[in-house]
């Protein structure tokens, strides 16, 4: 395997060599063995009834029922959106139950950590606040939130958080979601054989269900996680496989829901558990995350991250993991096979996700602390079974935790918190625009390459980047989520970041936390100066290494909210020109955003910058000109650059105490 052929991650590279040496297969190998079906990959295989599957290979061909290429491709895409919206939203529903239990006392160990946010959410859900205890409010918030899933008519509450103009667009088109579950079920109904057979009409429902996810299920998941576990603010932690420790019990938490992982964090910090680990010969307990469980726990508790989606099997290959504790979504079944070569226990915990061959220790919020301790104890008991280990000595610092509340605060403090300075910077041209670069890894493309290259190009072009999910974890591994990355930023972006004291790439959380990006966009649109709708903002959304149905739902709710969204890898509707047009020019005309699939990294960058410039011109803003703002004025920064050029191993943070005169 040529170097860099599979991944740009040095830690992953080392582990893939190890896997080859040990003859252990991973997703990086399976992808070569499994060629994609040329018909299904283009969206042209219909298996919605037992007359088929009908495999359509060219325009003009129809299935046994007469379904056309565009109908089949649209149905397949809509079903993908439905599955993604269901996954996010079911995650949100479970958090509502935990909040309810925390308030009634039926879920011991959970607390209402952010009462301020509880009150804000209560206000938006029209729950009475005055003269009530936080528990009384929380019970009503949980019940009102749960009712959003089963709501049958009207509109979900959080649509009111969108700019007025956007709400009117949704109402005029008849795509304002009535209830989360209803819109998902309706996709399944419409795409049943012999039902909705007009591609555009099918995909209108795709927009509606995706909105129910973004402004409904996902937004509720984010809000309730913040109420229960705290609204994130920046902190420093580490990432990559080097966070695992040779002489400690290593437990990896992987999946998405913070409900169990937060309890495992508490159990792993318990002095009794640490003593127990010592009694087994370890020096302590190290907890590390993978995927979005990692995002949840690193931004609130500073739990280090072992990596992103494609790092999951590689972490087991270190031989140093006593237990990998998984809950829902993005968990490879292949983990069990890899773990068979080591002592590692794969522990499933969700009643919705069991894996044959894994140890199942089911989570129940009514006795969460007890279950978490049992799991940690199981991992500790496994430590003496460890054989040889191989942990790459590679890790990087990162600064996660930029919730939209913190972004508002950092730009104006408690009393003047607002996004005004952000809008002003875009209007002045210091910032060319904004980009949300989110989503997964996909072994069909080089691991982490597209995320890294695209974000570097944006920084150079003064585009402020926000990231979530595995995309955020990717660029954290390469040092972009810390102050040192300002060396890659253009002069305007660098000045803004230096003034505010932020890295040029802002980590906003997990997959469901893409809802935080929607909130920021809505506030930018209503703040003034950048039009009056999200579609006016010079910004783009990207998922360059997407792989999951959740990514399809996320992309669709960004488009439905007015954002030009580009996904990489390949188009799942490539076989239908009509559907490609519907989600492109068609959706742009309807909702102001469009969805494109562009596998080429350079073209993705160019399309994004062209779009940002087009939006700037439409707003009458000055043309982007990086020479207008000259060099960064931060002399500490200049001193740091000089010191590095001279070969000194000095961190920018360590220079914080250097006076300007000294610098
Ligand atoms: S975990 S959905 S691989 S971002 Fe949220 Fe990562 Fe994508 Fe899963």
List keywords for this structure.
663 residues; binds Broken Fe4S4 cluster; Rossmann fold; 5 domains; Substrate Binding Domain Of Dnak, Chain:A, Domain 2; 16 strands; globular; alpha/beta; 25 helices; single chain
Give a written overview of the molecule.
There is one protein chain. The protein has 663 residues and is of the alpha/beta class. The chain folds into five domains: 10-55, no CATH class; 69-229, Up-down Bundle (Substrate Binding Domain Of Dnak, Chain:A, Domain 2); 237-385, 3-Layer(aba) Sandwich (Rossmann fold); 399-629, Rossmann fold (3-Layer(aba) Sandwich), CATH 3.40.50; 633-663, no CATH class. The protein contains 25 helices and 16 strands. The chain has a six-stranded parallel β-sheet. Helix 3 packs across helix 22 (549-560), helix 4 packs across helix 5 (134-150) and helix 8 (199-229) packs across helix 22. The two termini are 47 Å apart. 57% of the residues are buried. The model is unreliable at 656-663 (pLDDT under 50). The chain binds Broken Fe4S4 cluster.
